[in-house]
């Protein structure tokens, strides 16, 4: 029942995708009831005016799928749920737990609505012009009592100066440089590095700016962009102390991603009933997969790798993943927490998520994200940059 290992090795990912594609090809007929050749034969398709005739088949397919889902859910609850808690190496409080609605209301009154939970979310936009690329990152810290802080930063990446005999020569040289920069792993501020800078800023606000007992973050507590440094050892070295402060010392945090690709957690979550949560596994396999597959071979990464390995040893068994559901109308949600406070973290997240029953996702994180987008809209750099360049050309 270990969590799926995620690797960052390009060849490994390519091999995994190829294997998955081959498996999908072999099982296509079993999954759909028809051969792929029949699907791709356009003569088997219906004209638009006959699509309504497919309604009865659609209804039959949906009913059959719901029956299969109920059977699978029953099997998972009967057979898989007991194994979560009983297996060797299970984290503390592993298993499925049920919470009363009255307990969630108490958490709302005593923690959420009294300002004892702070949420952090960020946004990052890119504005590319001919002479430079502008990166804007913004972070917001919010409670239900109001906005507790906003931070923004802009990075200006200048394109390398080019020379040529004619304007056409210079333009072609600039385009060639940008194409080479897109293909290079260490080309300025890559998309992965941009996400890493935002993740580090969110982590810094969670660890050093937030003052509430409980801190709520979006995404993963150990994003790959920070564990790998996105090609920069300095990013790792600056992130490890923040990981220690928030994840290992403060401990009272909960991270909830907006969607998850973890099939194990999603499968368990789909079988949960409303007001149930499950503590499933620790993050040891995840850390091992990312760190051991990382490209830390150069001398520049020597200190960063040492810090990572030390943190990995200290964090072993202390960070866990789980899933919860608050409503029959909403999907389950993945959460990450410290093992010592995993149940409390799940209840805090559920108490907030039940406020938006149809979505089942913590409203405080949506509030922080909304404030971030309102105060730092994407056009906040587009319009001034366009106006300045227009004046300069004039």
Share of residues in helices? 40-55%
Rounded average pLDDT: 80
Radius of gyration: 25 Å
SS element count, helices = 14
- Which structural class best describes the helix and strand composition? alpha+beta
User: Runs with pLDDT <50, length 5+?
Assistant: 1-25
Commentary on this structure:
With 394 residues, this protein is α+β, with helices and mostly antiparallel strands. It has one domain: archaeoglobus fulgidus dsm 4304 fold (2-Layer Sandwich), CATH 3.30.2170. It contains 14 helices and nine strands. A nine-stranded mixed β-sheet has the order 1-7-8-9-6-5-2-3-4, sandwiched between helices. Strand 2 and strand 3 form a beta hairpin. Helix 4 crosses helix 12 and helix 6 packs parallel to helix 8. The protein is globular, with a radius of gyration of 25 Å. The N terminus is likely disordered.
Short summary:
The protein is of the alpha+beta class. The protein is 52% helix and 18% strand.
């Amino acid at each position: 029942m270990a969590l799926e290992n995620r690797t960052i090795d390009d060849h490994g990912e390519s091999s995994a995708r190829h294997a998955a594609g081959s498996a999908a090809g072999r099982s296509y007929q079993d999954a759909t009831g028809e051969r792929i050749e029949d699907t791709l034969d356009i003569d088997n398709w219906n004209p638009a005016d006959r699509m309504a005739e497919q309604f009865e088949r659609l209804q039959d397919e949906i009913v059959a799928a719901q029956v299969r889902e109920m059977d699978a859910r029953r099997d998972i609850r009967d057979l898989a749920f007991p194994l979560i808690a009983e297996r060797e190496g299970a984290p503390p409080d592993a298993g499925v737990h049920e919470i009363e609605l009255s307990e969630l209301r108490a958490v709302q009154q005593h923690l959420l609505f009294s300002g004892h939970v702070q949420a952090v979310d960020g946004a990052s936009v890119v504005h590319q012009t001919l002479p430079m690329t502008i990166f804007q990152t913004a972070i917001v810290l919010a409670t239900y009592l109001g906005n507790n802080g906003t931070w923004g930063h802009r990075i200006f990446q200048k394109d390398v100066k080019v020379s040529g005999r004619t304007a056409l020569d210079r333009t072609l040289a600039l385009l060639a440089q940008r194409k080479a920069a897109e293909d290079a792993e260490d080309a300025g501020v890559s998309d992965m590095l941009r996400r890493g800078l935002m993740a580090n800023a969110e982590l810094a606000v969670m660890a050093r700016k937030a003052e509430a007992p409980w801190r709520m973050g979006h995404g993963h507590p150990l994003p790959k962009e920070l564990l790998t440094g996105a090609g920069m050892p300095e990013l790792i070295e600056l992130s490890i102390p923040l990981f220690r402060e928030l994840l290992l010392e403060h401990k009272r945090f909960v991270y909830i991603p907006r969607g998850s690709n973890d099939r194990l957690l999603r499968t368990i979550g789909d079988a949960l009933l409303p007001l149930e949560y499950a503590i499933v596994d620790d993050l040891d396999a995840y850390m091992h997969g990312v760190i051991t597959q990382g490209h830390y071979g150069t001398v520049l990464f020597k200190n960063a790798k040492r810090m990572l390995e030390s943190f990995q040893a200290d964090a072993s068994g202390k960070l866990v993943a789980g899933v919860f559901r608050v409503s029959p109308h909403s999907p389950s949600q993945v959460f990450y927490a410290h093992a010592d406070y995993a149940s409390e973290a799940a209840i805090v997240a559920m108490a907030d998520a039940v406020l938006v029953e149809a979505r089942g996702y913590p409203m405080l994180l949506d509030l922080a994200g909304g404030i971030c987008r309102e105060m730092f809209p994407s056009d906040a750099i587009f319009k001034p940059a366009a106006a300045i360049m227009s004046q300069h050309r004039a």
